[in-house]
Each structure stands twice: as structure tokens, then as C-alpha cells.
Task: structure prediction
Amino acid sequence: METRTKPLDELISTILSQNTNDTNRDRAFQSLRERYPTWELVRDAQSEKVIETIRMAGLANRKGPRIQQVLREITEERGDLDLGFLEELDPEEVRRWLLHFHGVGPKTAAIVMLFSLGQPAFPVDTHVYRVTGRLGLRDATMSVEKAHDHLAQLFPVETYYEVHLNLIRHGRQVCHARQPACETCTLNDLCAYYPSLPN
Ligand code: SF4
Result:
């Protein structure tokens, strides 16, 4: 069942998620919310304190200032931190608007669009990238940035949410980065990588 998060919550959470796992991302997000009940307080807090609060997410020296910078830029541009206006824009406008912030790339923009706004976008994280490459759903040398548009065109829009989540689950549970469980994988008869394995 699809549940939507607030766009700004999703944006901050996705910045926190870079190069860490979901548990540490969630702990850092929770810690931030407990110390600063509003995003305005995070924006105006001392940089060192924000860094200290999100330390468990890793790369806190980068993520803290990046989060505060995005919050300041949104405020300068919009006058406040209400992202409700995004609901009224078409997907391409939303994508462009999100991408113009420093530190917001195609994956972050697509996550906010898909999970918060219910708009058509196909986020490509490390699992989605690896699994689609092995299955042969994209060219092996395609960049992760290009894979966003390519996979968005490959799958029907109404399936984005489920396909994204299922690819992540498959990557975590079966198609591991180091030792994919190919022998027992239910997709091995469809996979481009499997036949290349030594017998
Ligand atoms: S057969 Fe192996 S490489 Fe292909 S999708 Fe399954 S686990 Fe991944």
C-alpha cells in the first residue's frame, strides 16, 4: 500500500541516505526531528550542532551543510519552507525545480516525486542500477544518470512504484552485489548475466 511522505521530509531523508543504510538514515532523521521540531529550526541552527545531530548517517560534515543550504535556498526562493506548491506543477517542472538545488541529483528528485507527490519518476539507487544491469534491462555501460530516463521509458508509469521497490528487494535479498544467488534466483532464465557464469 502506497503511503506518502511530505516532500520536504523526503528530500531531507534522501540527502541523509547518501552512502549509508536505511537504519542509519532513519536514526539520523529521527535525531534531527527530536532536536529540532521544525525545518526552520534546522535551517537556522548552528552548523556544528546539525552535524553532531546527524553524525550516525555518516558524511555528516557534508550532509549537514547541504541540508541547511537547501533549506535556506528554498526559503530565499519561496519565502518559506512550504513545498505544497509542487502538487500544482507538472512532473517536468517539479523535476527541474528540485534539480536546481546544489546536492539534489536525479535520484533524490525522483524519490521525492514518486514517494511524496505520486508523480511519475523512476529513482535509480545502487540496487536498481545493479539489478537492471545484470538482467540486461539497460546497456552495461549506461551511467546511473541516464538510467533514470531509460528505465522510466522502459516500464509503464503505473508500475514505477512497485517495480522500484521490487528491484530493491531483489537486489537486497537475492541479487547481492558480491555473491548473487543466481542458482536459486527466479529470474535466472531471463537474466543476461546468468549465462555468462562458469558452469
Ligand atoms: S540470475 Fe543472478 S545476476 Fe541475474 S538477476 Fe538473478 S541473482 Fe541477479
User: Anything to note?
Assistant: The chain is about 55% helix and 0% strand. The chain has a mean pLDDT of 94. The chain has two domains: 7-116, 126-196. The radius of gyration is 18 Å.
